[in-house]
Protein backbone atom coordinates (compact mmCIF):
# COMPACT_ATOMS: atom_id res chain seq x y z
CA UNK A 1 0.00 0.00 0.00
CA UNK A 2 2.73 2.32 0.90
CA UNK A 3 4.64 1.89 -2.33
CA UNK A 4 1.44 2.26 -4.42
CA UNK A 5 0.61 5.67 -3.06
CA UNK A 6 4.22 6.68 -3.38
CA UNK A 7 4.21 5.60 -7.00
CA UNK A 8 0.98 7.43 -7.71
CA UNK A 9 2.45 10.59 -6.36
CA UNK A 10 5.61 10.09 -8.35
CA UNK A 11 3.59 9.62 -11.52
CA UNK A 12 1.55 12.71 -11.15
CA UNK A 13 4.58 14.77 -10.24
CA UNK A 14 6.92 13.56 -12.95
CA UNK A 15 4.25 13.03 -15.60
CA UNK A 16 3.76 16.78 -15.82
CA UNK A 17 7.34 17.26 -16.80
CA UNK A 18 8.24 14.46 -19.19
CA UNK A 19 6.02 12.20 -21.30
CA UNK A 20 8.77 9.63 -21.69
CA UNK A 21 8.99 9.06 -17.94
CA UNK A 22 5.25 8.50 -17.70
CA UNK A 23 5.40 5.85 -20.39
CA UNK A 24 8.24 4.12 -18.62
CA UNK A 25 6.21 3.88 -15.47
CA UNK A 26 3.20 2.49 -17.37
CA UNK A 27 5.23 -0.49 -18.46
CA UNK A 28 5.72 -1.48 -14.85
CA UNK A 29 2.12 -2.75 -14.96
CA UNK A 30 0.67 -0.54 -12.32
CA UNK A 31 -3.08 0.01 -12.12
CA UNK A 32 -4.63 3.45 -11.67
CA UNK A 33 -5.39 6.69 -13.45
CA UNK A 34 -2.22 6.82 -15.48
CA UNK A 35 -3.29 5.25 -18.85
CA UNK A 36 -5.72 7.99 -19.96
CA UNK A 37 -2.94 10.54 -19.43
CA UNK A 38 -0.65 8.66 -21.81
CA UNK A 39 -3.23 8.36 -24.58
CA UNK A 40 -4.38 11.92 -24.34
CA UNK A 41 -1.08 13.71 -24.34
CA UNK A 42 0.75 12.61 -27.50
CA UNK A 43 -2.01 13.39 -30.10
CA UNK A 44 -2.25 17.01 -28.91
CA UNK A 45 0.98 18.10 -30.54
CA UNK A 46 0.46 16.89 -34.11
CA UNK A 47 -3.12 18.19 -34.09
CA UNK A 48 -1.95 21.70 -33.29
CA UNK A 49 0.76 21.55 -35.89
CA UNK A 50 -1.64 20.37 -38.56
CA UNK A 51 -4.11 23.14 -37.81
CA UNK A 52 -1.45 25.83 -37.87
CA UNK A 53 -0.09 24.63 -41.18
CA UNK A 54 -3.56 24.71 -42.71
CA UNK A 55 -4.07 28.34 -41.67
CA UNK A 56 -0.62 29.19 -42.99
CA UNK A 57 -1.43 27.59 -46.31
CA UNK A 58 -4.70 29.45 -46.60
CA UNK A 59 -2.99 32.73 -45.83
CA UNK A 60 -0.25 31.97 -48.27
CA UNK A 61 -2.75 31.17 -51.01
CA UNK A 62 -4.67 34.33 -50.29
CA UNK A 63 -1.52 36.45 -50.38
CA UNK A 64 -0.50 34.79 -53.62
CA UNK A 65 -3.88 35.58 -55.12
CA UNK A 66 -3.71 39.24 -54.02
CA UNK A 67 -0.19 39.67 -55.31
CA UNK A 68 -1.21 38.11 -58.61
CA UNK A 69 -4.12 40.50 -59.06
CA UNK A 70 -1.91 43.49 -58.15
CA UNK A 71 0.65 42.34 -60.67
CA UNK A 72 -2.03 41.95 -63.30
CA UNK A 73 -3.33 45.45 -62.73
CA UNK A 74 -0.17 47.43 -62.15
CA UNK A 75 2.77 45.18 -62.92
CA UNK A 76 2.88 45.70 -66.65
CA UNK A 77 2.26 49.43 -66.41
CA UNK A 78 4.81 50.00 -63.72
CA UNK A 79 6.44 52.96 -65.46
CA UNK A 80 3.17 54.64 -66.33
CA UNK A 81 1.38 53.74 -63.14
CA UNK A 82 1.04 57.34 -62.00
CA UNK A 83 0.40 58.73 -65.44
CA UNK A 84 -2.56 58.67 -67.71
CA UNK A 85 -1.14 58.05 -71.13
CA UNK A 86 -2.85 58.46 -74.43
CA UNK A 87 -1.33 56.07 -76.92
CA UNK A 88 -1.76 55.88 -80.64
CA UNK A 89 -2.11 52.29 -81.62
CA UNK A 90 -1.31 50.78 -84.99
CA UNK A 91 -4.87 51.28 -86.21
CA UNK A 92 -4.54 55.02 -85.64
CA UNK A 93 -6.99 54.84 -82.79
CA UNK A 94 -6.36 56.44 -79.44
CA UNK A 95 -6.06 54.33 -76.38
CA UNK A 96 -6.01 55.64 -72.83
CA UNK A 97 -3.72 53.76 -70.53
CA UNK A 98 -4.74 53.88 -66.87
CA UNK A 99 -8.23 55.28 -67.42
CA UNK A 100 -8.76 55.81 -63.67
CA UNK A 101 -5.66 57.97 -63.42
CA UNK A 102 -6.77 59.83 -66.53
CA UNK A 103 -10.19 60.61 -65.02
CA UNK A 104 -8.61 61.72 -61.74
CA UNK A 105 -6.20 63.97 -63.58
CA UNK A 106 -8.98 65.66 -65.58
CA UNK A 107 -11.03 66.10 -62.40
CA UNK A 108 -8.09 67.66 -60.55
CA UNK A 109 -7.35 70.01 -63.44
CA UNK A 110 -10.96 71.18 -63.53
CA UNK A 111 -11.03 71.76 -59.79
CA UNK A 112 -7.80 73.72 -59.98
CA UNK A 113 -9.19 75.91 -62.74
CA UNK A 114 -12.37 76.65 -60.79
CA UNK A 115 -10.43 77.34 -57.59
CA UNK A 116 -8.14 79.71 -59.46
CA UNK A 117 -11.13 81.63 -60.80
CA UNK A 118 -12.62 82.13 -57.35
CA UNK A 119 -9.38 82.42 -55.49
CA UNK A 120 -8.88 85.84 -54.02
CA UNK A 121 -5.39 87.11 -54.41
CA UNK A 122 -4.74 88.95 -51.18
CA UNK A 123 -2.13 91.63 -51.43
CA UNK A 124 -0.19 92.44 -48.33
CA UNK A 125 1.05 95.73 -49.76
CA UNK A 126 -2.46 97.25 -49.83
CA UNK A 127 -3.73 99.43 -47.00
CA UNK A 128 -6.45 97.69 -45.00
CA UNK A 129 -9.84 99.34 -45.31
CA UNK A 130 -13.22 99.28 -43.59
CA UNK A 131 -15.57 96.65 -44.94
CA UNK A 132 -17.92 99.13 -46.57
CA UNK A 133 -19.07 99.84 -50.10
CA UNK A 134 -16.49 102.09 -51.77
CA UNK A 135 -19.35 104.01 -53.40
CA UNK A 136 -22.39 104.28 -51.11
CA UNK A 137 -20.57 103.88 -47.72
CA UNK A 138 -23.12 101.24 -46.64
CA UNK A 139 -22.15 97.91 -45.13
CA UNK A 140 -22.92 94.46 -46.52
CA UNK A 141 -26.54 93.35 -46.91
CA UNK A 142 -27.88 96.77 -45.90
CA UNK A 143 -31.49 97.14 -47.06
CA UNK A 144 -31.76 95.22 -50.31
CA UNK A 145 -28.21 95.94 -51.41
CA UNK A 146 -26.93 92.41 -50.95
CA UNK A 147 -23.36 91.28 -50.44
CA UNK A 148 -20.24 93.32 -50.89
CA UNK A 149 -18.01 92.11 -53.74
CA UNK A 150 -14.27 92.28 -53.57
CA UNK A 151 -11.58 92.81 -52.77
CA UNK A 152 -10.56 94.91 -55.76
CA UNK A 153 -7.23 96.69 -55.59
CA UNK A 154 -6.98 100.28 -56.73
CA UNK A 155 -4.54 103.15 -56.38
CA UNK A 156 -6.40 105.81 -54.40
CA UNK A 157 -5.24 109.29 -55.28
CA UNK A 158 -4.32 111.71 -52.55
CA UNK A 159 -6.54 114.40 -54.10
CA UNK A 160 -9.88 112.66 -53.30
CA UNK A 161 -8.74 110.27 -50.63
CA UNK A 162 -11.60 107.98 -49.42
CA UNK A 163 -11.28 108.83 -45.74
CA UNK A 164 -14.39 106.74 -44.93
CA UNK A 165 -12.52 103.60 -46.00
CA UNK A 166 -9.11 104.21 -44.48
CA UNK A 167 -7.07 107.03 -43.02
CA UNK A 168 -4.79 108.83 -45.37
CA UNK A 169 -1.13 107.86 -44.72
CA UNK A 170 0.54 110.57 -42.63
CA UNK A 171 3.47 111.13 -44.96
CA UNK A 172 1.56 110.97 -48.20
CA UNK A 173 3.02 113.23 -50.86
CA UNK A 174 0.78 115.54 -52.86
CA UNK A 175 -0.69 114.08 -56.05
CA UNK A 176 0.58 110.65 -55.09
CA UNK A 177 -1.50 107.53 -54.67
CA UNK A 178 -1.60 104.50 -52.43
CA UNK A 179 -2.88 100.98 -53.00
CA UNK A 180 -6.06 100.07 -51.11
CA UNK A 181 -8.48 97.18 -51.26
CA UNK A 182 -12.09 98.06 -51.93
CA UNK A 183 -15.48 96.34 -51.83
CA UNK A 184 -18.71 97.26 -53.55
CA UNK A 185 -22.36 96.24 -53.68
CA UNK A 186 -23.25 94.58 -56.96
CA UNK A 187 -25.87 97.21 -57.80
CA UNK A 188 -23.58 100.12 -56.90
CA UNK A 189 -20.93 98.76 -59.32
CA UNK A 190 -23.53 97.98 -61.98
CA UNK A 191 -24.96 101.53 -61.95
CA UNK A 192 -21.55 103.22 -61.89
CA UNK A 193 -21.09 104.80 -65.34
CA UNK A 194 -18.21 103.51 -67.48
CA UNK A 195 -17.31 100.69 -65.10
CA UNK A 196 -17.59 97.48 -67.07
CA UNK A 197 -17.14 93.88 -66.20
CA UNK A 198 -14.65 92.16 -68.48
CA UNK A 199 -13.84 88.55 -67.63
CA UNK A 200 -13.59 88.79 -63.84
CA UNK A 201 -12.11 92.30 -63.85
CA UNK A 202 -13.85 95.64 -63.58
CA UNK A 203 -12.47 97.87 -66.29
CA UNK A 204 -11.86 101.57 -65.59
CA UNK A 205 -12.55 100.95 -61.91
CA UNK A 206 -9.48 102.72 -60.56
CA UNK A 207 -9.81 105.76 -62.77
CA UNK A 208 -13.57 106.12 -62.22
CA UNK A 209 -13.43 105.54 -58.45
CA UNK A 210 -11.00 108.42 -58.04
CA UNK A 211 -13.51 110.60 -59.88
CA UNK A 212 -16.51 109.30 -57.87
CA UNK A 213 -14.69 109.99 -54.58
CA UNK A 214 -14.52 113.62 -55.66
CA UNK A 215 -18.31 113.75 -56.20
CA UNK A 216 -20.80 114.23 -53.37
CA UNK A 217 -24.28 112.75 -53.29
CA UNK A 218 -26.96 115.44 -53.30
CA UNK A 219 -29.13 113.31 -51.00
CA UNK A 220 -26.72 112.16 -48.24
CA UNK A 221 -23.90 114.64 -49.02
CA UNK A 222 -21.23 111.95 -48.83
CA UNK A 223 -18.51 111.17 -51.35
CA UNK A 224 -18.50 108.32 -53.86
CA UNK A 225 -21.62 109.39 -55.76
CA UNK A 226 -21.57 107.90 -59.24
CA UNK A 227 -24.99 108.28 -60.84
CA UNK A 228 -25.38 111.61 -62.66
CA UNK A 229 -28.68 113.41 -62.69
CA UNK A 230 -29.19 116.99 -63.89
CA UNK A 231 -25.58 117.97 -63.23
CA UNK A 232 -25.64 116.47 -59.73
CA UNK A 233 -24.70 113.03 -58.43
CA UNK A 234 -26.31 110.24 -56.42
CA UNK A 235 -25.44 106.94 -54.78
CA UNK A 236 -27.46 103.99 -56.01
CA UNK A 237 -29.32 103.38 -52.70
CA UNK A 238 -29.98 107.13 -52.35
CA UNK A 239 -31.50 107.17 -55.84
CA UNK A 240 -33.65 104.16 -54.98
CA UNK A 241 -35.11 105.90 -51.93
CA UNK A 242 -35.46 109.39 -53.38
CA UNK A 243 -39.00 110.08 -54.56
CA UNK A 244 -37.87 112.77 -56.98
CA UNK A 245 -35.79 110.52 -59.24
CA UNK A 246 -36.38 107.37 -61.23
CA UNK A 247 -33.85 104.78 -62.33
CA UNK A 248 -34.28 103.53 -65.87
CA UNK A 249 -33.28 99.86 -65.88
CA UNK A 250 -33.08 99.67 -69.69
CA UNK A 251 -30.52 102.45 -70.09
CA UNK A 252 -28.99 102.47 -66.57
CA UNK A 253 -29.64 106.17 -66.28
CA UNK A 254 -31.30 108.28 -63.63
CA UNK A 255 -33.92 110.94 -64.39
CA UNK A 256 -35.67 113.46 -62.22
CA UNK A 257 -39.40 113.20 -62.06
CA UNK A 258 -41.03 116.54 -62.93
CA UNK A 259 -42.32 118.24 -59.77
CA UNK A 260 -45.95 118.04 -60.89
CA UNK A 261 -46.05 114.28 -61.53
CA UNK A 262 -44.09 113.41 -58.39
CA UNK A 263 -46.88 114.84 -56.21
ZN1 LIG B 1 -23.03 100.39 -52.26
ZN1 LIG C 1 -26.02 109.16 -51.07
Automatic annotation (TrEMBL):
Q: What is this protein called?
A: Uncharacterized protein
- Superkingdom of the source species: Eukaryota
Q: Where is the composition biased (Low complexity)?
A: 32-41
List the residue ranges of the region (Disordered). 1-74
Tell me the InterPro entries matching this sequence: Znf_RING/FYVE/PHD
Q: Where is the composition biased (Basic residues)?
A: 42-53
Q: Basic and acidic residues bias located where?
A: 7-27, 54-65
Amino acid sequence: MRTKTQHKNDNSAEGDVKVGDTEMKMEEGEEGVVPPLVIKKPPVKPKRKYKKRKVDDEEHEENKHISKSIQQRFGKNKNTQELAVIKHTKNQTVKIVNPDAHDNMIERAEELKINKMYQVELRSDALPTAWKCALCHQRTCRDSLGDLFGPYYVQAEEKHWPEFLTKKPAKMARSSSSLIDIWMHGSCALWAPDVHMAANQLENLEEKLNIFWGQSCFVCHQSGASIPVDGKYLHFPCAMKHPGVVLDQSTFTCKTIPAESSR
